[in-house]
Write the structure tokens for this entry.
Amino acid sequence: MDLWGRRLQERLERTMRRLIPTAAFGLALTFALMAGPAEAGAVFNAVKARGFIQCGVNVGLAGFSAPNARGTWSGLDVDYCRAVAAAMFGDATKVKFVPLSAQQRFSALQSGEVDLLSRNTTWTLTRDTANGFHFAPITFFDGQAFMVAKKSGIKSAAELNGATICAQTGTTTELNLADYFRSHGLSYQPVIVEALAEMNAIFFAGRCDAVTSDASQLASIRAADASNPDDYIILPERISKEPFAPAVRHGDDQWFELVKWTIFATIDAEELGISSKTVTDFLKSSNPSIQRLLGEMPGFGAALGVDEKWAYAVIKQVGNYGEIFDRNVGAGSRLKLERGLNALWTAGGLQYSPPLR
Amino acid sequence: MSQSAKLGAIIRPPPTRSGPLGWVRANLFGSWADALLTLLILWGLAELIPPLVRWALINATFTAADSRLCRLADGACWAFIHEKYRLILFGTYPYDQQWRPLLAVVIITVLFALSCNRRIWARWLIPLWLGGGLLVALLMWGGVFGLDYVENRLWGGLPLTLILAVTGLVVAFPAAVLLALGRRSELPVVRVLCAGYIELIRGVPLVSLLFMAAVMLPLALPSGMTIDKLLRAQIAFILFAAAYLAEVVRGGLQAIPKGQHEAADALGLTYWQKMGAVILPQALAVAIPPIVNTFIAFFKDTSLVIIIGLFDLLSTAKSAIADPAWHGFYRESYLFVAILYWAFCFFMSRYSQWLEQSLKRDHRN
């Protein structure tokens, strides 16, 4: 996460929690009363008639959603908005991005201000139920991790026994850290720091053997604050679960299915070795899995209510999962995150698409 | 003649009491405490300024094709600002159309400057601002005269901050005057309503008003109907500013001696004649410093829209540093917007000082 953004968000979230617990309850209640039985396909048809998708994204989070110098949005979350547009309209540019703050994102989805929320949102039970959302497949498995200097030679969190570890005070990060070391029978020396910027300074000055936070944030810290980012590595272990997934509101299964299968299609494409550069060549493939994915064997687009070439458009215009990951947060970006849990299941990760048939 | 020349020679002060040396002695080293304070401040400046100059100028990188060069240098990365200034100033407004928000900013600034001239106040002020506002709206939205239509969803940066603040204040000010008069009215219903409104709005933080506008309001509307996000924020700002300004204006009203009211009544003026011609001109003049204080605070408060995802000047600065290619130059980014905010606030403050002087009426006799 962005260094300052997260601090601000955390503080605001704390304040809000104190300020309006009752209001939040009322809000949930109001929504529950209002939601009612919605017309099937209402969002799907509205989006189709409108001609573009309204997609809620982060105001600015490195690798996930940020405008570049010319005001064009890029990032992993942003690319999934584009992918759904490509599936729906055959044109990845038919999206309007609605930047949302952490506080506003859920009501924006509930009220219909956005059709799709693709904003580094962790999938939890409460958000599924009380907020009335359906989460699409997980596009990024985040989680708390450790970062160490490469020259320390440490390759795994199991080697951190007795290490000094920098963490931020008062966050769940600190609790996860204590739990992890206790449950693994390891000892450590905590260096608990109030401010994120201070924690980074202390770590890069070499006062801690390791620093712990969410992996995406560690990558962001490394890219922004390390004098040479290549000197630091993020260890493969994840000691907490922060799965980011796009969400839609309850009431339109057809829309939910399109979002869901758009994401699966990008994963499936990577598994089949189809990239944006090679997708056209694969049209002539005799492999039935590929023929089904690319619409050469018809029926699947019709089942979703879109063009048969829906997945072809997604792969051609946005890319497969690996390409999206690499250019935004992976090796092709400044964040240089390892695939880790986000690798395909065939490569030891968790990204898995059900059969597209 | 010779007497006066002689006198002149006699009364020339000793060199240690006059000239620059004398000034230094009198003002900086007048006593032991003064001397100590002066030395402390000099030491503080000596500690602060050289590193700052080294960072901001000597070791700074002014041009770089990408951020790698900047990261190698110790100093500020002004190349970052060079790369991102258009995003920070204009947000996600279509890149090739950004002369339009630029022109809008110029128009708003010129309107401010023209309003400084009191001679145009009587007849020209209102048509001038109406015309200017219309022109700004035309430029920002477009859709006519061959300008492409640009939704306000894409507006951002300095024009958004200025539009939020200026529209908020221009609409809130007349409302505030009415509220202040209402609160001091002798009609009980009017008085209770006005006081109730003011206390209600003043009793909640601006953040929660913005949240209500951004989060609660859409849920209360029938599904499918949405009010524009910018408009919702603008209305929240107007409600908020009106309540605060009303109390400032009430302070001014209370500063006017009772004799003024009685004199106006004795002349047989109606309520509105009395207020319009006698009381308000004096009350508003008295209230200039707190009014401008509220204006300045309010101008900066617009940065709170960051929490409802509007791209004001501060949000665009924050977005600029989230670009992975130029990630983490938060010092440069925030310094840049701080200078912009400061320039506008300083202008307002100087203008108010001048206005205060030129409208000075002494009520002490």
